[in-house]
Amino acid sequence: MAGGKSEARAKVMWEGGLKTTSLIRGMEIACDKPKGLFGTNTAPAPLEIFSSAMGSCLMTTFLYSAHKSRIHVSDISVDVKTETDFVEGQERVVAGSMKLSVWTEGADKEKIEKVFDLARAHCTVTNAVNFPLEFELKIKD
């Protein structure tokens, strides 16, 4: 992984109701709440985008380490689940799980597991959370 400081920036603009648009490096990401939560259901909710960010971070960190380890990945996916509950009258994320499925061609299973451990150790987003997070690796040929 590259060393040194870095930063992430986003400008979040209100679109009315509960909808927002974030501008990140010139790209737009819409965010809204489901109709049952007073949104218009026209974009993912903040927690869904956060869950996606955790999965994307774990995946890209895995792919970086796999590339450095000369592991050919033919396909990969991450299933992410986050659970909320009311704690002291406020909704909070209380648990999460992530299952990374990787398809490889003849790669050593032990080597893939080491790359997965590296990805877990170096994933910026998942390392920033303070709720229990379970990880699972599925290796497929």
Structure description:
The protein has 141 residues and is of the alpha+beta class. The protein folds into two domains: 10-44, no CATH class; 46-140, K homology (KH) domain (GMP Synthetase, Chain A, domain 3, 2-Layer Sandwich), CATH 3.30.300. The protein has two helices and six strands; from the N terminus they run βββαββαβ. A three-stranded antiparallel beta sheet has the order 1-2-3, with no helix packed on it. Strand 1 (11-16) and strand 2 (19-24) form a beta hairpin. Helix 1 (46-68) packs across helix 2 (109-122).
What's the arrangement of secondary structure elements?
Layout: E1 11-16, E2 19-24, E3 27-31, H1 46-68, E4 73-87, E5 90-104, H2 109-122, E6 133-140
Parallel strand pairs: 5-6
Antiparallel strand pairs: 1-2, 2-3, 4-5
Question: What general outline do the C-alpha atoms trace?
Answer: globular
**Tally of discrete structural domains:** 2
Tally of strands: 6
CATH homologous group name of the largest domain = K homology (KH) domain
Measured on Cα atoms, how large is the radius of gyration?
Answer: 17 Å
The residue-averaged pLDDT reads 95
> Which residues sit in consecutive blocks of at least 5 with pLDDT less than 50?
none
Sheet having the most strands: 3 strands, antiparallel
| Count of helix runs | 2
Strand residues, percent: 35-45%
Distance between the termini: 27 Å
Helix content: 25-40%
CATH arch. level architecture of the largest domain:
2-Layer Sandwich
* CATH secondary-structure class of the largest domain: Alpha Beta
Widest β-sheet, arrangement of strands: 1-2-3
Class computed from helices, strands and strand pairing: alpha+beta
Order of helices and strands: EEEHEEHE
Q: What is the fold named in CATH at topology level of the largest domain?
A: GMP Synthetase, Chain A, domain 3
